[in-house]
Amino acid sequence: MSSADQTRLLIVEDVPQVAQYIRGLLNAQAHVKLLDVISDGSKAVAQIQELRPDVVLIDALLQGRVKGPKLVEQIRESKIGVPVIMLTVPQNPITPDPDAGIHGVLSMPFSGFDLITRIAQVRKDFAASADQGGSRVVSVFAPKGGVGKTTLAFNLAVAFGQLEQRTVLIDGSLQFGDLRALLKVPADSPSILDLPTDRIAESDLGDVLWRDPSGIDILLAPPRIEMAEMVTVRDVDKVLSLLRRIYGAIVIDLSSHLNDVSLSFLDASDVILEVVTYDSTTIHNTIAMADTFRAIGYPASKVRYLVNRADSAGGIDPADLERALGRVPEHRVVSDGRLVVQANNEGVPFVLAEPSAPISQDIGRLAGELLGQAAVPAAAGRR
Ligand SMILES: Nc1ncnc2c1ncn2[C@@H]1O[C@H](COP(=O)(O)OP(=O)(O)OP(=O)(O)O)[C@@H](O)[C@H]1O
Ligand SMILES: [Mg+2]
């Protein structure tokens, strides 16, 4: 069995005999790989964030500072996006309730077969429910300006569209709404500010969205710099909840500036695609940003690094970048000055202008990877 098919399991169990019994059952098979047994419930959430198991098995009768039910609540609140199986005894019956964070139950005694099939079922159900969970929200962000956010966000949105996803691109760079210039929209085109302030209905969107010839819909930023301040966190929450119901993919082009509004876009995102380039200020800011995201409480998996112009290292050793980021960047997009400048000047996506160019292929691959990713942890919020 390949390691990709194996289910990675984490157990939270403070009774050594029970842990030993389950270890014994798992020893004889290859479907489930036991990552670790944690006996202290208060350390479990951090371990889950670190180890990223596919399934967590928790003793419902776990003792200590964080008891079984409390731990389930913590996992649900942390929005880590992992299914939980409760281990219980017949005297303490528990009903599975995915909304409450309990995706399956195992009552003692159980056989190795019971254990393995329950784990497989819970993993499968959870992945299926995550798939149906509506749209994928991807913020394109960087703590440094001019690294290619707008270019990448536009082309990524179009690539999502090509993958049969109904896609909307939001210009979240509210002060200098780059998309207005890029797409050459008429100055009086409506923006996010033209949406009704109380209740937004689907029909209101038709009047406000810019339908781009590339096939995607675009929610533009306000036409004037000072109007950016009129967009509130509530507007963002409302518009995103509506767009999530209608679109399969939502891409947000963010500015490098962090404030309440941009943080609410980031909170609502399933993935923060953080653009880095090979230059020392970008790398420095990216490290600082990682600290901030950690402090906010975003799981590390919410951020995916994209190296733009990845073939132009400019004297920086790629290994140094990996060391600085603490991991291998998940995505890369090559440089193509001629194609990018020409396409941007014409206001067309290069993925349509030259689909076979290496840079377009990189964006296509990126789109596929972002959509194909299993078990989308829904919008991890700030603590
Ligand atoms: N992969 C690439 N190859 C070649 N040129 C690129 C690439 N990505 C971006 N560029 C160029 O870099 C410049 C900046 O791109 P872009 O405006 O998309 O960045 P940005 O991060 O949105 O900037 P801002 O912070 O001002 O919003 C543009 O001139 C664009 O043509
Ligand atoms: Mg921009």
Biggest beta-sheet profile: 8 strands, mixed
The computed structural class is alpha/beta
Associated small molecules: adenosine-5'-triphosphate, magnesium ion
Widest sheet: strand order? 8-9-7-10-6-11-12-13
Number of strands: 13
Distance between the termini: 39 Å
Subunit arrangement of the protein:
single chain
Order of helices and strands: EHEHEHEEHEHEHHEEHEHEHEHEHHH
The level of helicity is: 40-55%
* Mean pLDDT figure: 89
Rg over CA atoms, rounded to whole Å, is 23 Å
Anisotropy-based shape: globular
- Low-confidence parts lasting 5 or more residues at pLDDT below 50? 373-383
Percent of residues in beta strands: 15-25%
State the helix count: 14
What does this structure look like?
The protein is an alpha/beta fold. It is built from 14 helices and 13 strands. Strands 8-9-7-10-6-11-12-13 form an eight-stranded mixed β-sheet, sandwiched between helices. Helix 5 (149-162) crosses helix 14 and helix 8 runs parallel beside helix 9. The two termini are 39 Å apart. Mean pLDDT is 89; it is low at 373-383. The protein binds adenosine-5'-triphosphate and magnesium ion. Magnesium ion binds next to helix 5.
